[in-house]
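User: Could you write out the 3D structure of this protein bound to adenosine-5'-diphosphate? I've included everything you need below.
Assistant: Certainly. Input first, then the structure.
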Amino acid sequence: MTFRTRLFLGSLAAAGATLVVATVLVSWSLRQSVSERIERSLVSQARLTAELLSGQRASTRAELDLEADTLGRLAEARVTFIAPDGTVVGDSEVPSQGLGSVDNHADRPEVRAAHAHGLGVSTRYSDTVDADMLYVAVTVRNSLVPDVSVVRLALPLTEVREQLAVVRRAALAAAATGLASALALAWITSALLARRMRAIADAARRYAAGDLTRPVRDGGSDEIGTVARALDDTVREVGRRAGELAADRARMEAILGGMIEGVLVVDAQGRLQLVNAAARRMLKLTGDPGDRHYLEIVRHPEIAAQIGAALAGTATDGRELTLPQEPNAIFVARTAPVATGVTRGAVLVLHDISDLRRADQVRRDFVANVSHELRTPLTAVRGYVEALLDGVPDPEQSQRFLETIARHTLRMERLVRDLLRLARLDAGQESLERVVCRIDALFNAVEADLAEAAEARAVTVTRDIAPEAAAVNGDPAKLHDALRNLLENAINYSPEGGTITLASRRHDGHVVITVTDEGPGIPASDLRRVFERFYRVDKARSRGARDPGGTGLGLAIVRHLIELHGGRVSAHNAATGGAVMTVEIPDL
Ligand code: ADP
């Protein structure tokens, strides 16, 4: 049964019960008062009749009966005169000649009561008039008519009942009207209340579904209004707190998502609570791991042991390890217990230190390389110096020794100069001063620098500058150093009498400068590596005994200088076999 039906039936039942009780009570009391009024009026009529009769001088019975008829008409009731012995001496309903056959009335209850108390009232069936009657008998006090001691008035009860029926009908009509009004009122009231209750129920359903945007807004000052307002207030508060929690969570997720360390949180049962993006990457997790057990995804005895210890309340020191998912990477795993008042668990932080280790290795290699590169010329210098100290050989030989010492010293000087330059570039100490540089001016300058070397090897340098790539936006000194290095290598590796081409063109928003020679080229496997520090392609293929060789740092410096411009440098081989060094500088 709906709330509305219940409310409607309840209020209708209450109104109906009240109406029935009221109707019964009212009609009962009305009936009482009508009966009493009729009885009282009959009593006063009887007294009036007795009074009238006591002033009469009717002596004969015929006159008395006539008098009874007259008074009966006036009183609109049956009037009976009764002699002291009970004989009926006059009756408005009985013709005078029939009076003799009327029963003696001495035993009638009202007559007896009248004799005893002066007034008698009785209700009973009358044989004489064949109907229920109300009888009132009074004694005649000062009788000029000694034959009459009691005057009795009778009223048929049908009349009384008719009056009562009128009263009952009125009461029933009032009850029916009242019931109809109660019905309408109960209907309207229940509809209004049910509508408000429905609004609250609808809002509660919306709230339960997560839509906190539409409150009930019931302005009533009654209990329903209070409930609605309490619901709205609660939901507003819940919404505010949910908003705060969501913001907190979003902030936390943003922080965790932006971390380079992998973070993994498990609850006291070891089920995953949180795995950030970095941890997913490191553990090679695809999709949402849900709340699986950490052992299902970590699969590393060391980490499992660490999490186990953390769940037991012990924090562990960082351990270096390699994950089966990523065998080339080195991680440091650190685990700590988490206790946040209500929840307990553990947090694992994975830190990828591969880059750190690699950088460390590069540094170690670098130091070893530098030591090696310096030791070779130093040993040679020391050897020749000692030979010279041991005794001066012939002037020709000592001249050769001194030339060799000078060459090695020059090599060391070049090495130290290049190392210092790289250190400056690494430290970001060389700033870039970009201007528009003409390509032919750049080419002129490097060619002039290396004219002697080119001439010595009978190398020809040609140019191929596209009109749209006649200028480049860059630092002229740094571009000069880079191009000089590339042209120097090209000359060194060119065959005697070969041709080197310096070219520039525009491609994809870049000015592309190439240095192409006709030398042996660079093996495909070394094309990328020639830009590493101290990297040299197979020494046997290099410049040979003629020169102790470059420092192995030239191309590393070139790469640095070009990357400082936001560009890149790469090595290829020409189809005809020579090396092609390509420099790309972005247009600004
Ligand atoms: P280096 O001072 O030894 O020349 P670079 O860094 O300039 O050092 O060059 C690294 C290596 O790249 C060289 O040792 C050489 O093997 C190779 N290389 C550079 N330029 C050329 C070229 N034009 N032709 C062939 N090999 C080259």
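The longest strand covers residues 326-340.
User: Perfect, thank you.
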